[in-house]
Design brief:
The complex is a heterodimer of chains A (427) and B (481).
Chain A lengths: L3 H6 L8 H12 L17 H5 L3 E2 L20 E5 L2 E2 L12 E3 H9 L8 H9 L2 E7 L7 E7 L6 E11 L4 E10 L5 E11 L4 E9 L5 E10 L4 E8 L4 E10 L5 E10 L4 E10 L5 E10 L4 E10 L6 E11 L5 E10 L4 E10 L3 H9 L4 H17 L5 H14 L4 H7 L5 H4 L1
Parallel strand pairs in A: 1-7, 2-6, 5-7, 6-8, 7-9, 8-10, 9-11, 10-12, 11-13, 12-14, 13-15, 14-16, 15-17, 16-18, 17-19, 18-20
Antiparallel strand pairs in A: 2-3, 4-5
Helix pairs in contact in A: 2-5, 6-7, 7-8
Chain B lengths: L1 H11 L13 E3 L6 H10 L4 H16 L22 E3 L13 H9 L4 H8 L2 E6 L2 E5 L2 H6 L3 E4 H7 L1 H7 L10 H9 L4 E5 L9 E6 L10 E6 L4 E9 L7 E3 L2 E6 L4 E9 L11 E11 L5 E8 L4 E4 L2 E4 L5 E10 L4 E10 L5 E10 L4 E10 L7 E10 L5 E10 L5 E10 L2 H9 L4 H12 L1 H4 L4 H15 L5
Parallel strand pairs in B: 3-7, 6-8, 7-9, 8-11, 9-12, 10-13, 11-13, 12-14, 13-15, 13-16, 14-17, 15-18, 16-18, 17-19, 18-20, 19-21, 20-22, 21-23
Antiparallel strand pairs in B: 1-2, 3-4, 5-6
Classes of the chains: A alpha/beta (427), B alpha/beta (481).
Amino acid sequence: MIPQSLFDNCAVLPGWDKHLRLEAWKNWRSMATPTIRDEAWKYTSLARLEKMVFSPSTPAPSTLTLNDIPLTFPENRFCFINGVFNQRLSAPLTADTYLLSQRAWPKIATQYQTAQSYFERLNAAMLNDGLYLDIQNTTNTPLYLMLLEDKTGGLSQHHLRHRIRVHAGVKSDIVIVDLGLADSSSLTTHVIDIELAEGATLNCTHLKKASAPGYAIRQTHAHLAKNSRFTHFNVDFGAKLSRNEIVVLLQENNASCQLNGLALARGQDHIDNQTQITHLAPSTQSLAHYRGMSDDKACHIFHGHVLVDANAPDSIVNQQSKNILLTSKAQVYAEPQLEIYNKNIQCVHGATVGDIDEEALFYLRSRGLSNEIARQLLIFGFARSLLETLDDNTLQNELAEWIKTHLALDSELILDCYKEPDHENTH
Amino acid sequence: MTKPNQTLETLLQQNYEHGFVTDIESDTLPPGLNADTVRAISAKKNEPEFMLAWRLKAYEHWCQLTEPHWAHLKYTPIDYQAICYYSAPKLKDGPKSLDEVDPKLIETYNKLGIPLKEQEWLAGVAVDAVFDSISVATTFKDKLNDMGIIFCSFSDAVQNHPDLVQQYLGSVVPYTDNFFAALNAAVFSDGSFVYIPPGVRCPMELSTYFRINAKSTGQFERTLIIADKGAYVSYLEGCTAPQRDENQLHAAVVELVALDNAQIKYSTVQNWYPGDENGVGGIYNFVTKRGECRGEHSKISWTQVETGSAITWKYPSVILKGDYSVGEFYSVALTNHHQQADTGTKMVHIGKHTKSTIVSKGISAGFAQNTYRGLVKVLAQADGAHNYTRCDSLLMGTHCGAHTFPYIESKNSRARIEHEASTSKISEDQLFYLAQRGIDTENAVSMIVNGFCKEVMKTLPMEFAVEARKLLGLSLEGSIG
């Protein structure tokens, strides 16, 4: 994947600690590439990726503008293009709340000592840039973190690591826009570490549309203190390999998390969603709801693991995975797993796999809709119902538009048939 | 809640009811495993050439394998060279009737509550009892013979029906399947063989009781059941074992073949010695059970009540090859003290409109770990396949664990898979409600657990349901904390 010579010749970015980097490189090299014999990679083969050689990205001036991204952006935003911070497209917060690039390094580097997984180690060795965000006050508008990939030509790679801290009692919303605008193959790894202090709330929406032939590995680690709440909404539009690993540690009393995910795989896409939630303290709650749709020859994997420790009585666990397969060549793998060591808990999980509900289809057809429109409506409804868990209506509608475009649904017809819910009444 | 719990604690501490050893001279091979051991076993059983060749191939394959450790189990490593691979009760000539059977054996079965004679006449059950590794008593043979049903020990089948054995042996569980299946194929000593001819409905429940007896002896049973076109058979398997201080290995293989329109119902009550309350001793139970619905509209149904063994590693599976075939798996797995169970099923949908149902109830008490591990796999050609899985866990102790590892793999858009699971405990409210009505904690727990397992228990044949309830009652109580 990355030969030694490439690492040696790769320019050391200013401020990055050479010694730590070399350690990280050795650390990565010492680990064998995961194979389908490894439980966590059972359905995702890295055999092809392993044979490819990716060169480190060279920070070239990009001509991208905000208009290239069909989203409404508020004032606060950080933009990274090809793994490097881009001043032109950014409109950051006040300077005391964040650190960038080399200034952020000491804060981010502390997290590297615990790097366990293969791609986290690779990320440590090849890191390009990063952001350290210290959220001290509640903000009313969401903060956008834009991780863009522009055309580079050839096989490129870039690696980012961010650390987000939310202070006690502070509520914050973050939208991560993870976009691949290149049409060439690339390898990108992004690691985000999140720490929530007592009573903090973080709503994180991760919108991911990696470049179609790309390999995009994302890892999110969240540590939750007492009474804190973390919600994560992952919308994945697919790529050659799109893997999302979310690890949540509910470390103190009454911490709660809600992980929602929507995977819309088509063509030759391979979306691999992995969630791992660990309940370590009493009265902690977790909810995970993942929906996946596989069209054409696409593949979707949901591997959810919830562990309730013996020291976590009165915990509540709910894990759901719903999947639809639209063609006979598409595939779905679902593994909603539970590991429970305490009896005083409430715990349910469920998984379904199937085609569009025949009865619902019949119902719509009996009301005069054509088969095609009825199907489109049901597919859209399948995705849309999960979007409704988002508090931000603007974001909700924008995502709905993205979904319509992505699935090539007839917007006009759906608009006619799909009555928008009255959010003021329903929420 | 403390007072009734103390009573239950004492109940829980009671000794293993079936813990005793019958003193019978055994014909035993020295411990250790090599190609000569395999040859010796085959020679002792006077097997035809094809059997020896098959065993040796299995042994060679086994030598290349390493023991799997992916299951959620912790146990001291097994020394395969310390195990004695053949032990047969010494019988000068095969018994022709029950009167000729060693009275000590009969006594053993009586202690276990299997009065052969009474069963023969009252319950209408034909018993092929396996003592250690050799079949010693077979009843109702004549009646079954008249209908063309073959129900005999595996060794007899190898001698008398080599064609059938050669045709079906290893066709569902090949020796290459897994580590324990390869070991079994190399050294299996005996087991049961059933063949139901086309269109015949077996008039009685066929049953075999297994029992480990000779010290340091692993048991390697092999059961093969074939239901030809339109046939029906219900087979019962029950296990009890005497008390031991050292761990014993049990690696059985069960193969079922159902042809067009055939039905096989296989029920198990497993009560091997689970070890003492400190986790010392107990049976290691590594079993490969698999059925193949080879024909259209065929059906295979597994029902198991697992209360024994220190370690259970068992996944009765169904390969749904024939169109419109049906697979079922009903399971109650109960673990107490330091028992560990990693059990579940595999349903592989290959044929069109195949259907499978999985109902699993796991109960965990004391320091036990109970894991459900199940695979539902739908291949691309299995149009209209349908699976429903329900797995519930009940936790009864502060130090135990209940885990669920389902694997769902679908490659067909016209298949429907539903999986649901829950984990809960016996609530104070339930116990209080029953106490209010004058039911003591012991009975209340028993009622609640039996209610929890009802869905599975009702699929058991009558005789087994009684034994299963008794077993649950014995093993469960006292674990309310």
